[in-house]
Amino acid sequence: MNPFSFRLIGTDGTARIGEITTAHGVVRTPAFMPVGTQAAIKGVHHDDVRASGADIMLGNTYHLMLRPSAERIAALGGLHSFMRWPYPILTDSGGFQVMSLSALRKVTEQGVTFRSHIDGAMVELTPERSVEVQILLGSDIAMQLDELIALPAERAAIERAMQLSLRWAERCKRAFERAPPGRALFGIVQGGDDKGLRETSARSLTAIGFPGYAIGGLAVGEPQEVMFDIVAATAPVLPPDRPRYLMGVGTPGDILGAVARGIDMFDCVMPTRNGRHGLAFTRFGPINIKNAHHADDPRPLDAESRCPAARDFSRAYLHHLFKAGEVLGGTLLSIVNLYYYQDVMEGARAAIAAGRFADYAAATQAQWAAKADKTPDKAGGA
After folding, report:
1. Which listed residue, of 184, 227, 236, 346, carries a Cα 20 to 30 Å from 213's Cα?
2. 0.85 exceeded by the pTM?
């Protein structure tokens, strides 16, 4: 089995291009990971996900441990076999969903106890159990259990959660010693919008030692400039020879801004969630296909796109699908968005390699802005 490794190929300013090697293949960075919450990209076939250019998919520990259960997936050959995705998989720890979905929960030093959203049963998720679930799932990259809190918050509350997450990181690392060779566990930097706490968290995690590091607790309602400020202050504290993952981000503009600040990996439900609600991300900016002025428009979303759904269907037809309540509409726009996100990442990788990332980001954003200024689709834009 191939060991996990990261190779930093080059830099352009603080933007980085590299490769993550896993037992199930190579992940080109900067990378966007589509979110397969329940071992599926909602409404999209895995072959379309792969065709879009995705090297890696994300699975959700919280949902899979509750249904169908990690033990059942392990008995059926592990997550790669279960979902027929033979490429790299990253699983989150379940902590975010516990904090966001469970109305009744209790956080202690031991872990977090919560009520299942499926059947109301009380479930305990400890650092050890989170790691056990992820080992059973068989993901190539697992995440430590952490506690995150919504912003804004008092500094004392942010520091308490950050310190608890550090203690949980140590327990997760010890528990992960049971994992088969070739897998990796990432630590998660916490600290809210406080740069000092972020630096403390990053340095402490580095001292514990992980093959990769994530920045968590952002994209939780804070302004974009605050997120960028925290990323810019945190990324340089992390080891340059390890991948850096900004969790839960975001719009194409968020991603380009974070790549410029040294981030290698991203995930977000936005491409598929927005697609199901009629919003397409394109090189012309966001297009709300449900707007009435698309009803008679014979043009495709993008005649030059490599995505068949963006290139071969008219805007009028896509508009009709949503007006008629046809599920196909959401599927097609989800595919359009997955392709576009991967196109943004491929463009970023090529631009970094050529030493022109700043020009690429500026030109891409200028094209979004030029289109958004001229159409009623600018609402909800990137």
Report:
1. 346
2. yes
